[in-house]
């Protein structure tokens, strides 16, 4: 599961430097490219491929004296330098820079319409269409809120965006609220994909509401909710994507993950001697499972913390998993192991780990997954492999159990997941096949 993206925007002192720090805090959301645009009477952009620390060298923001900046970390499998964000967009005599988290569902038909009118796009990324649509409507209406109202009507799908336009920040979250977006206020106005990226600035934070638009300029910040749809927050932010120390739409990611483990232990207990997690993202649910079941939690798998995206040397998938994770024999040898992870996508990680644990002496391996099986594709910003690659798309739980070589296997139910997160205002389309209406109503 890839393609998250993290966005940032601020009007404050030393805004470009703060964008840099916030992007480091959002690095988990995208590691392929990073960039910052700032305002100095016009738009200046510094961006490139790689991690934030690779793109921005010690002096690359020297001379970036500005009180207005936006930033982006990107996750995408393709894309040229021009498509690393912020993206500069021109239309109808205006220019803006935009950062975007999400994916549009009607990108191709709307883009074609613009092309038929004679507009020439400069990139192949959906983000450009949002900027073009905004500028086109702004050129007629001369009002940022009214232009964004038109964008909401025209452009469907998932988008949390920040734009740098005419010495202002224009911020919006789609009316479904697929992707998170947080607003912080203190010595200025700040926006970030997750509030955990704003904590270091000592701000009061709240969620940007679905359908809410902000126009922020020196001395003034206005916001209005200008579009309404049924709320459907991406449940995978809680299961896997977001940082555990983030609060998204009023719900702590850590607590939601912990409760997923608790619910799972209630629904599908296991006879085991020790509970171990698949690090990193499986840890919090494993703790919840252990506490609820009364089985001790131990660290049975250790993750090499330097393995990130820098590991590009070609190697067999098996060797990759062994480099990334290794078992602690003293924890698993001779024991009945309950192995907890947040999710299974293709099943490659789990198959390898089960074997690894058996090789290290585990007597039994009972796999417990703190989310329901992923069976359907996502069109709202998450690059789920095709259905053919999803291990659960057409298989029964029993077949998956055999495939991964476990002694038993259970997934959290959809109801259990809703109880754990504490709301049913969730997009769960990749689990249930029910896609939020607004995103496909075009
Ligand atoms: O079924 P698969 O296709 O093998 O993928 C599933 C694994 O991928 C994710 O973790 P990831 O390896 O991204 O790392 P993390 O948990 O350390 O963030 C997820 O948490 C599962 O562990
Ligand atoms: N992961 C994302 O949110 C991607 C944003 C945008 N669609 C892009 O490809 O750059
Ligand atoms: S389909 Fe799945 S990954 Fe995509 S937005 Fe909905 S819950 Fe999130
Ligand atoms: Mg994982």
UniProtKB/TrEMBL annotation:
Binds 1 Mg(2+) ion per subunit. Binds 1 [4Fe-4S] cluster per subunit. It catalyses: 5-phospho-beta-D-ribosylamine + L-glutamate + diphosphate = 5-phospho-alpha-D-ribose 1-diphosphate + L-glutamine + H2O. The active site is at 5 (nucleophile). InterPro entries: GATase_2_dom, Ntn_hydrolases_N, PRTase-like, PRTase_dom, PurF. Pfam families: GATase_6, Pribosyltran. Pathway: Purine metabolism; IMP biosynthesis via de novo pathway; N(1)-(5-phospho-D-ribosyl)glycinamide from 5-phospho-alpha-D-ribose 1-diphosphate: step 1/2. One of its GO terms (molecular function) is 4 iron, 4 sulfur cluster binding. GO terms for biological process: 'de novo' IMP biosynthetic process; purine nucleobase biosynthetic process. The keyword Iron-sulfur applies. [4Fe-4S] cluster binds at residues 234, 378, 427, 430. It is an enzyme of class 2 (transferase). In the C-terminal section; belongs to the purine/pyrimidine phosphoribosyltransferase family. HAMAP family: PurF. This is Amidophosphoribosyltransferase. It comes from Thermococcus chitonophagus.
């Amino acid at each position: 599961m890839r393609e998250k993206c993290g966005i940032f925007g601020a009007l404050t002192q030393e805004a470009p430097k703060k964008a840099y720090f916030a992007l480091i805090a959002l690095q988990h959301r995208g590691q392929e490219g990073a960039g910052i645009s700032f305002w100095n009477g016009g738009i200046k952009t510094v961006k490139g491929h790689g991690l934030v620390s690779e793109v921005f060298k010690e002096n690359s923001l020297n001379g970036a004296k500005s009180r207005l900046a936006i930033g982006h970390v990107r996750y995408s499998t393709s894309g040229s330098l021009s498509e690393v964000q912020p993206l500069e967009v021109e239309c109808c005599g205006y220019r803006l820079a935009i950062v975007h988290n999400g994916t549009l569902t009607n990108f191709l038909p709307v883009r074609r319409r613009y092309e038929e009118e004679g507009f020439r796009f400069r990139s192949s990324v959906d983000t450009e269409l949002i900027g073009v649509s905004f500028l086109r409507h702004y050129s007629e209406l001369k009002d940022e809120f009214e232009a964004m109202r038109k964008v909401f009507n025209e452009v469907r799908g998932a988008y949390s965006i920040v734009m740098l336009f005419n010495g202002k920040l224009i911020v919006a979250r789609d009316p479904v609220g697929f992707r998170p977006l947080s607003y912080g206020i203190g010595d200025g106005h700040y926006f970030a994909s997750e509030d955990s990226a704003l904590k270091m600035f000592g701000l009061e934070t709240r969620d940007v509401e679905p359908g809410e638009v902000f126009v922020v300029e020196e001395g003034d910040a206005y916001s209005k909710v200008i579009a309404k749809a049924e709320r459907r927050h991406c449940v995978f932010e809680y299961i896997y994507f977001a940082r555990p120390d983030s609060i998204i739409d009023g719900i702590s990611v850590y607590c939601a993950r912990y409760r997923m483990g608790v619910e799972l232990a209630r629904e599908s207990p296991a006879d085991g001697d020790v509970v171990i997690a698949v690090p990193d993202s499986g840890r919090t649910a494993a703790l919840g499972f252990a506490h609820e079941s009364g089985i001790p939690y131990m660290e049975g798998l250790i993750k090499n913390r330097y393995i990130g995206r820098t590991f590009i040397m070609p190697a067999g998938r098996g060797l990759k998993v062994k480099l990334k994770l290794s078992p602690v024999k003293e924890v698993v040898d001779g024991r009945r192991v309950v192995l907890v992870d947040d999710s299974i996508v293709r099943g490659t990680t789990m198959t390898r780990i089960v074997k690894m644990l058996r090789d290290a002496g585990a007597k039994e391996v009972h796999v417990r997954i703190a989310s329901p099986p992923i069976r359907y594709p996502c069109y709202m910003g998450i690059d789920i492999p095709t259905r053919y690659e999803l291990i659960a798309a057409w298989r029964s739980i029993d077949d998956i159990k055999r495939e991964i070589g476990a002694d038993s296997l259970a997934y959290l139910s959809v109801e259990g997941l809703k109880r754990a997160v504490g709301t049913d205002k969730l997009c769960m389309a990749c689990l249930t096949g029910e896609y939020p209406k607004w995103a496909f109503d075009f």
